[in-house]
Amino acid sequence: MGRSILAIPLHVRNANDGNVDAPSATSAWSAFDFGIVFSMWAVMMIAMMLPSAFPTVMAFATICRKRGQNLFRLSPLFVLGYLSIWLLFSIVLALLQWQMHGLLWLSPMMDNNNRILAIAILVMAGAYQFSPTKNACLSYCQSPVGFLMNRWRDGAMGAYRMGIQHGVVCLGCCWAEMLVMFSVGLMNITGMLVLTLIITPEKLSPFNAAISARIGGLLFFAWAGGVMLSD
């Protein structure tokens, strides 16, 4: 456990410290293994990203009601479209985990074995918070009514397509933050909670997107510094 509180959510072990449970670079994943890892990522994505989408889902339901449409039928389709993007991203994350496992960057307990990589991921996530793409995507997430009205389509397929569109924007906003789980340890509940507490408030923040994103970026830089100074 590191001396800095910022390093508490990180579990990094040196790949050369003689850890007997270090995975072999030649160890193969079966289809069942991949399915388990994908399921883990899918549950994690839903748990972390659904709360941050709540304002947009509520805005969608309100617009449905005002337009005389069945919000109880269409709202679940909107949510399904939104989650479809994160489920697809879960496949990408599972493939990335497979590669990291083969390179000995992750232990069998899914902790990070490479301190430099852990710090680099946190710095990358912090740097992305200052990018124009992050700013644009977060602006949409902070203004759900405007986002929906500019893309509104009636009917079931319209609801599903709008959910997909919101999912794409949300992915553009948060993909780098999701990679931080590779830094803190994939089974690290504390790390997941810290990430959720960064992602959700920035979308609900009274500040504009640029300020909210930069606050998150500074937090990631501080986190990286804490890891760098930890044992």
Automatic annotation (TrEMBL):
InterPro entries assigned: PpoB2-like
Coiled coil, from the record: none
Annotated transmembrane regions: 38-64, 76-96, 116-131, 168-199, 211-229
Domain of life: Bacteria
Protein name per UniProt: DUF2182 domain-containing protein
Keyword Membrane: yes
Species assigned in the record: Methylotuvimicrobium buryatense
Record key words, sorted: Membrane, Transmembrane, Transmembrane helix
